[in-house]
Design brief:
Shape: globular
Organism: Malus baccata
Helix content: 40-55%
Protein name: Desiccation-related protein PCC13-62
Largest sheet: 2 strands, antiparallel
Strand order of the largest sheet: 1-2
Keywords: Signal
Structural class: mainly alpha
InterPro entries: Pigment-catalase-like
Bound molecules: 2-acetamido-2-deoxy-beta-D-glucopyranose
Number of strands: 2
Length: 336
């Protein structure tokens, strides 16, 4: 089974996942504590991911076409293409692509960076993600590049992980310089995600043609699917039950926030726990690197690369230190 895309977890795909175990190597962690460069390096992967998706969406080309050699010679992404965007969204995504050039440069200047990992943006991969999220195969297959709303749905699914990733890593950074950089990057990433979610919210009741599903339906099913695959349980759609809305006074959820998140830092375990307390403070969710890898690898397991990052380069932080962040999941516990 060569295709990495068929590996998102779901009852129907468990047999494919089993086959995937044969073609992916489980990585061992070397066991040293992650430092600031490791954490920011992990986020650099996500900055490349978002940046390339924006760059292909508006220019039909990679970030090197904006800033020569930004990728440091990393392989060109697979399957990206220019999206059929309306003029307003096209301008916004173009700005995001330029912003991503700056973010990649900033992390590279601070940490040395590394060449862009191989990224897979093929339509088939997005289509599988959406099929698994909605629970049945959409016909024709979901195409993220076909129109504005499809592209926004896909962009939200990707850039949300950047927001929650920064929330997690920022709580673990040690130096002032890294803290300043992490906070600035979180600000921008959260802003990009909020703009995309607001654009989706504006279209919430619109049907995603030709499917019998609204934008709000698909976004919340992707969120629920992400929670299932990451085993994190934190992401929400753009319209929610009132008990999940800010201060219990709204069903809109343009910004996906959560009940308070106690963050324990200062020891090697560095856990972020999501406690559903009565104390609703509208704080942004956190996702650990492991949780993010489970969904972006498309395997449900942080030790098995695939999906959007089909090669091992993504595993910089993971190789060095991830075993300290979370107890590795054994294969036998993988089914959801
Ligand atoms: C990219 O994803 C597509 C769709 O899942 C898959 O067919 C293809 O093999 C993937 N490419 C790589 C290099 O993993
Ligand atoms: C951080 O750890 C990495 C290995 O994961 C190492 O290559 C790098 O030199 C370390 N950086 C600092 C500033 O200690
Ligand atoms: C591109 O970046 C790589 C890695 O930093 C470097 O080795 C190479 O010389 C650069 N190429 C150009 C044309 O600048
Ligand atoms: C969506 O439809 C619901 C119920 O019909 C309505 O209350 C809400 O205002 C609509 N939202 C948007 C963003 O159009
Ligand atoms: C579309 O979905 C609605 C609500 O889920 C359902 O009532 C309706 O029968 C569906 N229509 C078609 C053509 O599938
Ligand atoms: C981390 O968690 C493990 C498992 O719960 C525990 O055995 C270990 O003592 C903890 N390490 C620290 C430094 O608290
Ligand atoms: C909102 O409702 C939930 C569930 O009923 C409750 O636990 C929570 O305390 C309420 N939040 C506020 C701010 O009233």
């Amino acid at each position: 089974m060569a295709t990495t895309s068929a590996s998102y977890f779901s009852a129907a795909f468990v047999f494919l996942v089993a086959l995937n175990f044969l073609s992916f190597q489980v990585m061992a962690a070397s066991g040293h504590a992650p430092n600031d460069s490791d954490y920011l390096g992990f986020m650099l992967n996500l900055e490349y991911l978002d940046g390339e998706f924006y760059s292909y969406g508006v220019f039909g080309n990679d970030l090197d076409s904006i800033s020569p050699n930004l990728s440091q010679g990393g392989p060109r992404p697979i399957g990206g293409q220019k999206a059929n965007l309306d003029p307003l969204v096209s301008e916004i995504i173009k700005e995001f692509a330029y912003e991503q050039v700056g973010h990649i440069r900033a992390i590279t200047q601070a940490t040395g960076g590394f060449p862009r990992p191989l990224i897979n943006f093929s339509r088939a991969l997005f289509s599988l993600l959406v099929d698994l999220a909605v629970g049945y195969p959409l016909l024709p297959p979901f195409d993220p590049y076909a129109n504005t709303v499809n592209y926004l749905i896909a962009a939200q699914a990707l850039n949300y992980d950047g927001v929650v990733g920064y929330v997690y890593i920022n709580a673990n950074l040690n130096t002032d310089a890294a803290n300043r950089l992490g906070a600035s990057l979180l600000g921008m990433k959260a802003g990009q995600n909020a703009v995309v979610r607001a654009l989706l919210y504006e279209r919430a009741n619109q049907t995603v043609a030709p499917y019998n599903l609204t934008v709000a339906d698909i976004v919340s099913r992707i969120a629920e699917f992400g929670n299932k695959v990451t085993r994190g349980g934190l992401e929400e759609g753009i319209i929610v039950p009132i008990t999940l809305g800010a201060e219990n006074r709204t069903v809109t959820n343009v910004l996906s926030a959560i009940l308070s998140i106690p963050i324990t830092v200062g020891d090697e375990n560095r856990t972020v726990t999501n406690v559903l307390s009565a104390d609703v403070n509208s704080l942004v969710h956190a996702r650990t690197p492991c949780e993010i890898l489970r969904i972006l690898y498309g395997t449900g397991y942080e030790g098995l690369y695939g999906g959007f990052f089909p090669k091992e380069q993504m595993a910089k932080l993971q190789r060095s230190a991830l075993s300290l962040l979370e107890i590795p999941i054994s294969k036998s516990t993988l089914s959801l």
